[in-house]
Amino acid sequence: MPRGLIAPAQETRSAQPWRALCILVVDDDALIGMLLAEMLEVLGHSVCATPRTERDAIAAAKRHRPELVIMDIKLAQGNGPSAMREIICAGPMPHFFITGDGTSRLTAGALVLEKPFTEAELVKAIALTIDDSMSPGAV
Question: Hey, which of 14, 117, 126, 132 would disulfide with 121, CB 3.0 to 4.6 Å?
């Protein structure tokens, strides 16, 4: 497990961005998905599901209609950008990508957060994504 994926609780104790959110976390590494879900819950959010494949991510998004999706770019079965294209066919869905492959690519204008990341970086990514989704003309 890369050091720094989950920051120590004392690192950041800023106010929650906006409000508590229902978040879908998609990562093919079960441990990372679980740790990210725990971090989000400590921040006051709820995690509706932690699917590990593209197909399961699409089904979970349809079932739960989360307020935010945090999606790994590379999945063992499928990929994050493809899953998000399918998910947003049903309507706008705030989202950002996470990746550990060393590239910081923008995918369809979405924010990409490089692993390992700190709690402060996660909070900022959530705030930026939610802020962008509330802007006039946002999709």
Answer: 117
Environment class of residue 76 by beta-carbon count within 10 Å: exposed (0-12), middle (13-18) or buried (19+)? exposed
Q: Which domain holds residue 107?
A: 17-133
As for how many domains the chain has, the answer is 1
pLDDT (tens, 9 = 90+) of the chain, 139 residues, equals 333 443 434 344 444 445 899 999 999 999 999 999 999 999 999 999 999 999 999 999 999 999 999 999 999 899 999 999 999 999 999 999 999 886 656 565 779 999 999 999 999 999 999 988 776 555 4
Total-model pTM: 0.83
- Count of CB atoms within 10 A of residue 11's CB? 11
Phi then psi dihedrals of residue 131, to 5 deg: -60, -45
